Fold this sequence. Notes:
- There is one protein chain.
- It is built from 12 helices and 19 strands.
Amino acid sequence: MKDVLILASFFILSFSDSVAQNSVKSTGVIKEALPESAGVSSERLKRIDQVIQQYIDSNWVNGAVVIFLRNGSLIYHKALGQDDISQKVPLKKDAIFRIASQTKAITSLAAMILYEEGKFLLDDPVSKYLPEYKSLRVLEKFNETDSGYTTVPAKRQITIRDLLTHTSGIDYPSIGSKAMRAIYAKADVPSGIGILNRLLATEMKKLAALPLAHQPGEKFTYGLNTDLLGYLVEIWSGTSLDKFLEQRIFEPLGMKDTYFNIPKEKQHRLATLYTEDSLHHLQKSPERQRGLYADYPNRNSTYFSGGAGLSSTAYDYAIFLQMMLNGGRYNGIQIISRATARMMTMNQVGDLNMGTNKFGLGFEINTLKGSAQFPMSEGSFSWGGYFSTTYWADPTEKIVGQIMTQVTPNSHGELANKFKVLIYQSLIN
């Protein structure tokens, strides 16, 4: 009997040690690993190179940086193609990309850090912290001839949760509905990308005077919600958004290449921006296009857009996503609690839909129906950016995947979905 107890104790201690080692591995610093050690086929991974090279050879993209983590290990990280076609400059893995709307998830995390500090509750009205938002109105009729409009009172105030889930009724300049684009243009409300000499506080207070596109909570409408959330982060924290992100997220996680304004010594690493002509032929973006400077991350902006302002590398953003997969923990540092990470990556919009999917607190959430369209598991969280960057994280398969290109507009954006398929076809267990 004594021998049995000793043997049982040995197995229990061995199991506990194994769990502890696995926990450390999954929350430690990302390290390279052989594909087969993570259940990935080296041979099948070659298909990624082949497909992306086909797009490069077809002159559909100039190049791409791709990254694939599994079980917290770096399985695949490559730069393919050229950063500058005319100068024959190869694209490098440490290229800094304009990530645009990939900024939203990071700003949402910043807000949830302050949520955990008791600064607010999710269903607090925005007007509790910004009185300008107390008596909002909703668009009723719009006159295309002069951009005039009539409104009706909002049935309720917008909340912090509404901002995190894009259900407030706040729309987007440039890419929003026709009526709201005109209304925002007339009021000179910026979209957030490449804005240089403005202040977040000024623009977000200006936004409060304009109508909502619909009643709060009734629809998912992608809009300036996260820019407003970024301003609230400044109010709650008492510091500027750029400093808060740097001090509370980037420095603790070791994200050394993520900025609103790229420092001078790294500006040469900004990826070249490409666009298309009228025949969809790839060409280098002019210095200024549609009011946007191609090199805006190098121009020392004072406008810290929480919805679209950051630039980053594929590796830096992979760290952020791995932290979320780890339940808010990375390299021994707990950025947010496991419970808060769960809330951010679950359905927060109830019966509202985004196609077949849902939305959490800053992320699109893959549903069972969504997992029938593409191979990401139910519960995977994802998004992308205006300049053709796409990411996702899969908690079931423990995958982080990301493809970064710099082309807008992009007639061949299906490459991002092909990349997803190529990642999953490489799995062997």
